[in-house]
């Protein structure tokens, strides 16, 4: 009986289950490990790409800032040079006016005291011819020389002295030589330069151009519904991303402020060319035009018609030659000095 009870008790007693042991052979564990490693690799790759992009953007920003500083320095130097030239011109003009005033006062006093009407006229003619000769050789001002010679001829005609016939012939001969010279159209050239200055603000930059090629017309009538839908879907997908080739990387980095400085620098170049036109500085004139043409080719849209017109105008202006074999007024000066010497000797 007791043995049976023990057997029954042993049968009714519940034995605890053994604990589950964690092993690496389970598939879920390996999938979790693989997912964690893949996520870490993706994160590291993204961080590497982000760091590279940041470094590239920082480098481009530094280069753009340097170009902006260079442009500002060039603009400031050009402004300083322009102010210096203006001050020098004003100083030279003041000195010239002062010297002319003193010379005129001394000549007037001297003529009033010692000279006759013929001698005063000859002195005035000599002075004017000397000034015209200097201007002709320094600046090539043919118009001023012709004006002085014409005034001298009229004055000699009013005097109507037989002893001044040779002087009048020399003056007429110099006038004929100057009239035979080809005339440099400074007014027309100045007008073209002013027109280019006014048009610079409207010329399109290469960075502003965003033209997309026109899609070829499709004949939807010859296509099925599926073909039309596929063509439209493909056109929409291609419109999401547009790839353009930039042959001018510097033009693509121009900021709006740099574009403004570029246009102002080109205007200053054209203004310098206009100044050099009046001073007959052919080398400086062509150098400034070449610089403006180089800026147009480097930073502006060469396929635009206004840019092409501006480049053609600059090329035409660059072919203009200031070189002329200008005659001198030595014969007229020698004749008037000889007439003055003769009048001095004939003075009672």
TrEMBL record:
The chain crosses the membrane at residues 27-44. This is Uncharacterized protein HemX. Residues 1-12 have a biased composition (Polar residues). Residues 1-21 are annotated as: Disordered. It comes from Silvimonas terrae. The keyword Membrane applies. Keywords: Membrane, Transmembrane, Transmembrane helix. The keyword Transmembrane helix applies. InterPro entries: HemX (IPR007470).
């Amino acid at each position: 009986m007791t043995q049976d009870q023990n057997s029954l008790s042993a049968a009714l007693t519940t034995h605890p289950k053994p604990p589950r042991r964690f092993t690496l052979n389970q598939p879920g564990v390996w999938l979790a490990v693989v997912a964690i490693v893949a996520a870490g690799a993706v994160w590291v790759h993204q961080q590497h790409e982000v760091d590279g992009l940041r470094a590239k953007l920082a480098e481009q920003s530094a280069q753009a800032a340097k170009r902006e500083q260079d442009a500002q320095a060039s603009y400031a130097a050009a402004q300083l040079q322009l102010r210096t030239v203006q001050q020098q011109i004003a100083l030279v003009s003041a000195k010239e006016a002062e010297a002319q005033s003193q010379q005129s006062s001394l000549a007037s006093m001297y003529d009033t005291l010692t000279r006759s009407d013929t001698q005063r006229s000859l002195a005035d003619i000599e002075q004017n011819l000397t000034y015209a000769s200097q201007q002709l050789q320094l600046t090539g001002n043919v118009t001023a020389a012709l004006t002085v010679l014409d005034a001298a001829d009229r004055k000699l005609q009013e005097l109507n002295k037989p002893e001044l016939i040779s002087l009048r012939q020399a003056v007429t001969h110099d006038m004929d030589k100057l009239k035979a010279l080809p005339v440099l159209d400074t007014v027309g050239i100045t007008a073209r330069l002013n027109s280019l200055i006014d048009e610079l603000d409207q010329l399109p930059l290469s960075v502003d151009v965003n033209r997309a090629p026109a899609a070829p017309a499709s004949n939807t009538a010859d296509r099925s519904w599926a073909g039309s839908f596929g063509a439209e879907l493909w056109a929409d997908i291609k419109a999401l991303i547009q790839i353009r080739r930039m042959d001018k990387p510097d033009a693509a980095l121009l900021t709006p402020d740099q574009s403004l400085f570029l246009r102002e620098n080109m205007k200053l170049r054209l203004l310098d060319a206009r100044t050099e036109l009046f001073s007959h500085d052919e080398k400086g004139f062509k150098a400034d035009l070449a610089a403006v043409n180089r800026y147009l080719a480097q930073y502006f849209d060469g396929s635009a018609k206004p840019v092409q017109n501006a480049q053609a105008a600059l090329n035409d202006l660059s072919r203009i030659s200031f070189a002329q074999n200008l005659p001198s007024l030595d014969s007229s000066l020698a004749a008037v000095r000889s007439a003055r010497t003769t009048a001095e000797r004939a003075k009672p």
